[in-house]
Design brief:
It is a single chain. The chain has helices at residues 18-38, 44-52, 64-67, 89-98, 121-158, 164-197, 208-256; strands at 54-57, 60-63, 68-71, 78-83, 103-104, 111-115. The protein has 257 residues and is of the alpha+beta class. It folds into three domains: 10-39 and 121-205, Ribosome-recycling factor (Topoisomerase I, Chain A, domain 4, Orthogonal Bundle), CATH 1.10.132; 54-115, 2-Layer Sandwich (Gyrase A, domain 2), CATH 3.30.1360; 209-257. α1 (18-38) packs antiparallel against α5 and α6 crosses α7. The longest helix is centred in the last third of the chain and has 49 residues, at 208-256. The N and C termini lie far apart (60 Å).
């Protein structure tokens, strides 16, 4: 998903290490961001709701998530709640039912099984907003990396470790890659937000529509690549089959003679 690093100004690698280091850090930040988003799913909204439900127990408010382990191992619409203290099972089960969710518990078991509705638009938008905050945070982090490297370049130039020409080339390369990597982060965040919100998705940022055009172009290119691969596979299999049939015909002719 991360765009390939530009090949220009490769000769800089032999004269200064500031821009290669900064660009490597940019790329690493993108990879970490993309990986962090993999764990975010729309069904997480249901689990988040149950973890945040508050029940008054022994005169004080307690979150469900503090009283037991909330999981959805098989079906996002079915939550499994394991209460740590058996004495609280029935009380918590009754509370969940009163909150409007079908819940059942087998006698003697610490598990409560709850059926939940699909995430509401508000719940999905909360996840979408969180993705937006994460996206902006990474973009800010990239800018800080660029600023810190710029200060180091300036200090190196003042101490005459590098000259003005090299400093300018390094700075330009860092700025160009900052723009590219920032756009990549925004694209990754936008794609995830679009996937989470589904039919509720709407553009928020000024450049969302421009980024969507880039995303759609990438999707079309990927579809075309897959289609070409499938076509090549079909042709290869057909050719192999034809060659096998030809061998059989030749073999039968030899045996017959």
């Amino acid at each position: 998903m991360v765009a390939n690093m530009e090949d220009g100004n490769n000769n800089l690698n032999n004269t200064e290490g500031y821009s290669p280091e900064a660009i490597s850090n940019f790329e690493l930040a993108i990879e970490e961001f993309a990986e962090s988003l993999l764990a975010i799913k729309s069904e997480d909204a249901n689990i988040a709701v149950f973890r945040s439900l508050q029940i008054i127990m022994n005169g004080r408010k307690r979150r469900i998530g503090d009283l037991g382990n909330v999981e959805s191992p098989d079906d996002p619409m079915k939550i499994q709640l394991m209460i740590y203290n058996k004495e609280h099972v029935q009380e918590v089960c009754d509370f969940i039912r009163e909150s409007g969710f079908p819940a059942k518990n087998e006698e003697g078991s610490q598990f409560i099984h709850i059926r939940v509705p699909k995430p509401s638009r508000m719940q999905l938008e909360e996840i979408g907003d969180d993705i937006g905050r994460r996206t902006n945070s990474v973009c800010t982090r990239l800018t800080k990396m660029k600023t810190n490297t710029g200060l180091r370049i300036r200090a190196a130039m003042e101490k005459e470790f590098i000259d003005q020409r090299i400093a300018n080339l390094a700075t330009k390369r860092i700025n160009d890659n900052l723009d590219r990597c920032t756009q990549e982060v925004r694209i990754i965040g936008l794609m995830k937000r679009k996937k989470i919100l589904g039919s509720f998705f709407k553009t928020v940022e000024r450049d969302d529509n421009d980024l969507l055009k880039i995303i759609n172009k990438r999707v079309k290119l990927e579809q075309r690549r897959i289609e070409n691969q499938n076509q090549m596979k079909i042709q290869t299999e057909a050719l192999a089959k034809q060659q096998e049939e030809t061998k059989e015909i030749i073999h039968e002719g030899v045996v017959a003679s």
